[in-house]
Fold:
Amino acid sequence: MARVKVPRKSTHIDMTAMCDVAFLLLTFFILTAKPRPQDPVPVDIPPSSYEVPIADENVLLLTVGQGKVFFTVDGADIRQQTLIQMGQKYNITFTPEEQKKFIVTNIFGVPISQLKAFLALDVEQRKNFKQPGIPHDTTANNELSDWIREARKVGASLHNKALFIAVKGDNKEEYPVIKDLITVFQKQKLNKFSLITTLRAAPKK
Amino acid sequence: MAELDTSSGGGKKGGKVRSKKASTRIDLTAMVDLAFLLITFFILTTTLAKPKAMDVTMPDKEEKQTDQLPVPASRTMTILLGANNKLEWFVGEPGKSAPTPDTYGKNGIRAALIEQGKKIQAASGKYMIVIIKPSDKSVYKNMVDALDEMKITAVQSFAIGDITPPEVELLKRDGLY
Structure:
């Protein structure tokens, strides 16, 4: 019996389609990637079984860690206007240069008297700068409540929408700080807010 | 990877000298490798899990007490959050009913909530009201956990309240403060 000669085939595979798919996915991931804003203090978020994701915009986020409170608000226009109004309230004039720097400052936690000095720092210096947190005592008019009030006013006037108030707290944060925050909220008749949590597997029943 | 050139132009006898047709195929293996490496990098570095939000609604503080319905103590379960991830709860008024020290989680407060909820439902025909009172020694996680239990056990009516000195005394007595 004669041996059937199997014609030798090329081992080369056409990679074009694979390459297309790979680059398509790559483009997708690059475009959807969002750099995670760095927290000035390590914040370990507690888990819960709530599944409602946080709103995408118009969020006023208060980060709480190591007894300090840090302030973030979405939107460049809201930030700028909030800074101007806070300046007027505390008789501090911020130059356009400082306003610009404030717009790109994601999160901050310094008393307003130190804000000018903080804005003057560059990125590297800020990393090493120990931010003391925004003052929040239980008096009726503390800086934190002023920041929140001004931001809410600005948010309502510029976007015609109420800001979502969210609190991102550390697991080990002691309750008195949270209580102060809730007191501040309640003084402004702000009775609805969100606590940011991570997802925990739903309990078996 | 060498490619076998199957489209050889030579071999015809007496033909003109043709330039050998070069294959138009490019080896894409390296490119694909690189692309997948980058994909892997971006998949691993993006945060797919968006943070979740737990909505909390506090009662209005300024509201006058007169337009609120009195809450019967027999339907109220108070949870006191103490130190060291411990809590205790009691039904009724502080001092009159003995508090039960308990823990967080499935076999702790969750079981108690379900049991008491059924009991109160059976006794009064109405739902149970839960008041969460975090003490100054409790941590943020405790509060979130307690609120989470409300959702898990489907408690209809709950609130966060300020702890009172007699309740702090209860916690102190049980070594949770």
In short: The two ends of chain B are 72 Å apart (CA to CA). Confidence is low (pLDDT under 50) at residues 8-12 of chain B. The first helix of chain B runs from residue 29 to 45. The helical segments of chain B are 29-45, 106-124, 140-152, 165-173.
